[in-house]
UniProtKB/TrEMBL annotation:
Sorted UniProt keywords: Methyltransferase, Transferase
Key word Transferase present: yes
Tree of life domain: Bacteria
Signal peptide: none
Official protein name in the record: Class I SAM-dependent methyltransferase
Natural source organism: Streptomyces changanensis
Skewed-composition ranges (Low complexity): 23-32
UniProt feature coiled coil, ranges: none
PANTHER family xref list: PUTATIVE (AFU_ORTHOLOGUE AFUA_2G14390)-RELATED (PTHR43861:SF3), TRANS-ACONITATE 2-METHYLTRANSFERASE-RELATED (PTHR43861)
Ranges where the record places region Disordered: 1-39
Amino acid sequence: MSSAPRTDPGEAPDGPGTPGPSPATAGAAPGRSGHGARAARVAALRPGYRRELADGTAVFFEALRHRCPWCGSARLGGRLRTTDLLQHKPGVFALDRCHDCGHVFQNPRLNERGLAFYYRDFYDGLGEDRLDGVFAGRTASYRARAASVRPHLTGPAEWLDVGTGHGHFCASAAEVLPQVVFDGLDRSDGAEIARRAGRVRHGHRGTFTALAARRPGTYDVVSMFHYLEHATDPQEELEAARATLRPGGLLVIDVPDPECRFARLLGRWWLPWLQPQHLHLAPVGNLRRRLEGTGFTVLAQEHARAHDAVDLVAAAWLALDALAPREDLPWLPEPPGAVRRAARGAALLAGVPLLLAAALLDRAVAGPLAGRLGLTNAYRLIARREGP
């Protein structure tokens, strides 16, 4: 979530899976649990990561672009340079901004090998259990998304959630929209997990463009919640949505807002930059015009309802996690010793007051005033597919 998985602006990712098959992750030895089980899995993965990193990180990138992938302008400027602040995999990532249309994009962009490397063990494998718990706790947010679409529905509908992850949105949305049947699409095995759990009727695995070619005119609603920013070619994804929808069907898109003031104030600590996963961040005007040019009519544009009030606490956590010694990760040359583990625990414990203060500011100040102050970190567009 897609060409790659997605991540919501104020939460851990809840999106489509990896951009290709990831290698099987080794299980822990029988009888182990907790820290010991994780340490065994990390140790089993370390040789594979060491081999992949033997040639350095330059092999994970395409050539530098000299024109905007959205409008073709050559008037580009550097927007941000950062590292992987979530997984802490090696590499430096750059975002450029087009001075003509405002589009923000990763440059140079990850190639297929790079996408596979940086997504591995994030949504699946080593990171699967942790993120599944985060997704499961997003019920209120998922219901709010479904409620925003309800006024535009006229009766029973078939809905495809693109980049569904494990289908938690679909399960929550079904409670709000009992006349809707939900299917999910994901490039990882998340769609099958969602089907087995009863969260979706059908779990499709693969790319959206391939599904659109197989099943044109199948759905009444297509949702892309924090998915499009991960796509290598957003225009192809919009065309796939148009092909998959029946005439009059609805397309719902949530994406991070690169014009959010927090993006400037927080710099590299603004979570929705999410490097290296986010490849494209389109201003709302750009995406509206692109939708209209693809055969859609925009019915609603929402900012406050798409906002997730976690910018400050997420920035505080990212900074604190960057300062603390690393935990045991398979892409590090060796596991941390007891002293480093103790130092990490102490650093994170010392940062708890900062995290609590940031969370309070998010909820009590930044959240209620986000729309008025231009602090909304995402926007939502609801569009209708026109014509045959």
